[in-house]
Write a structure and sequence with these properties.
It contains 8 helices and 9 strands. By secondary structure, the chain is α/β, with parallel strands linked by helices.
Length: 258
């Protein structure tokens, strides 16, 4: 099936030996990953484990390398060095839905699929995201939320063990974002992929993730588990404390964090 990435190893140099096999219980393992753009180092020997079925959110200041790390996990950046091991299929939903405008919604979701009935598989994914009635629609007729649902359906048809979400809700209005949060959590609970969500929104990270990571100086500078059951009350005392802690790690002054 198209879009599959298994045990992806990015060597430090052409002569480097491949990394070790992915340990049991991990969906992805990142070791010593670095990426520079000219004289600017964005990732600097970064290490990260993502457990099977874990929902991880990654936050950090603009330009800190969040999307660069996501692209490394998706093997979309050939300038990355280090080792990236992924234990199964990978799918990505980007900030922009990236639907092909001259193909209808169903054809966008089934694009690149192989098998006996790709259209049936794609239609089932559209049903899961509530877009079955729009299977024959053109992408330009969709609302922002509908387009992101189609993007999620396109990711789902690849049955990913690792789902990478690159700020997919940032351009949506507040009510649509809440609806998309509920949808992503329901899809995650049903299919149980590991998820890495890149976001600038601390509250979004705390609402969705099992663990929130702060990226700083090219490495994982801070890791916070979120153990509250979902759905989560934004005003819960524990979330309030975690929010303040994360904003402090991001360099937001206490008076602004409050």
């Amino acid at each position: 099936m198209a879009g599959r990435i298994r045990s992806v190893a990015i060597p430090r140099s052409p002569s480097s030996a491949p990394g070790p096999a992915l340990p049991s219980g991990l969906a992805a393992a990142v070791r010593g990953v670095s990426r520079s753009f000219g004289s600017r180092t964005v990732l600097d020997g970064l290490d990260l484990d993502i457990a099977t079925g874990e929902f991880v959110a990654l936050i950090g200041r603009s330009g800190s390398g969040k999307s660069t790390l996501l692209r490394a996990l998706a093997r979309l950046d050939q300038g990355v060095t280090g080792s990236v091991e992924v234990g199964g299929p990978v799918a990505v939903a980007f900030q922009e839905p990236r639907l092909v405008p001259w193909k209808r919604v169903l054809a966008n979701v089934s694009l690149g699929l192989r098998g006996a009935s790709p259209a049936a598989v794609a239609l089932h994914a559209l049903e899961e995201v509530g877009l079955a009635d729009l299977a024959a629609a053109w992408p330009l007729t969709l609302s922002g939320g509908e387009a992101q649902r189609a993007s999620l359906a396109r990711a789902l048809v690849r049955s990913p063990s690792l789902l990478l979400l690159d700020e997919p809700f940032s351009s949506l209005d507040a009510l649509t974002r809440i609806s998309m949060h509920r949808l992503v959590l329901s899809l995650w609970a049903r299919h149980r992929p590991a998820v890495l969500l890149v976001t600038h929104d601390v509250d979004e990270a705390l609402a969705l993730a099992d663990r929130v990571l702060v990226l700083g100086d090219g490495r994982i500078a801070h890791s916070v588990p979120v153990n509250l059951p979902r759905p989560r009350d934004r005003d819960h005392a524990e979330l309030t404390a975690l929010r303040l802690r994360l904003l402090t790690e991001l360099g937001v002054p206490a008076e602004e964090a409050g």
